[in-house]
Amino acid sequence: MKPQSPRSEIARCAAEASPAGWFTAAVLSWHPNSTLDRLRQYDPFSMLIPNWRFFAPNPARYAYHLLYRTLSTSGEQSRWRPASEITVRTRTQAVWFPRRRESKAVFDLCGQFALYVSAMGEWAP
After folding, report:
1. What's the pTM?
2. What share of the chain is helix, strand, coil (3-state, %, to 5)?
3. What residues are paired with 82 via a beta bridge?
4. What's the Rg (C-alpha) of the chain?
5. What's phi and psi for 23, nearest 5 deg?
6. Span 86-123, pLDDT tens digits
7. Which residue, 40, 18, 20, is CA-closest to 29?
8. Measured between alpha carbons, how far is 95 from 120 in angstroms, rounded to an integer?
């Protein structure tokens, strides 16, 4: 076997160390302690070091169950009915859950409505 030149040895070491360095920087930047997030300053376009906190920067701490009722033309109110069903999750939904968008929409609307009502203060219907 022919000995490698110093230049090719350096290239081989760099090729091996680069993925390990990238992985280490990514894992450190995911840590909740924001001082470790300083590694992102070396990624000016925010493309090289992934930030998984993007998907849930403020995780949900509440659940909403939306109910509704109708008012007839004669002024009679119906009983309260659920607008959406809360179902138990399955293992496959960790990978594939297209109906999640519906529950996410209800969650977002309820959160915005709660902010709106709290901004209005006390009010009587």
Report:
1. 0.44
2. 50, 5, 45
3. 67
4. 26
5. -60, -45
6. 778 888 887 888 877 877 888 888 888 888 888 887 66
7. 40
8. 40
Residue showing tokens 């920087």: 25
For residues 113 and 62, give the distance between their C-alpha atoms in angstroms, rounded to a whole number: 14
What is the distance between the alpha carbons of residues 44 and 81, in angstroms, rounded to a whole number?
51
Task: Kindly report, residue by residue over 22-54, the tens digit of the pLDDT.
Answer: 888 878 777 777 776 777 777 777 777 776 655
- Do residues 81 and 65 lie in contact, with contact meaning Cβ atoms separated by under 8 Å? no
**71 bridge partner residues:** 77
> What SS3 state is found at 77?
strand
Question: Could you identify the residue written with the tokens 């179902």?
Answer: 87
Stated as kind and residue range, the H or E segment containing 82 is strand 81-82
Q: Per-residue b/e over 14-47, b at no fewer than 16 CB within 10 Å?
A: eeeeeeeeeeebeeebeeeeeeebeeeeeeeeee
Residue 38, both tokens: 């300083």
Q: How many CA atoms lie within 13 A of 59 on its CB side?
A: 4
Contact indicator for 86, 65 with CB cutoff of 8 Å: yes
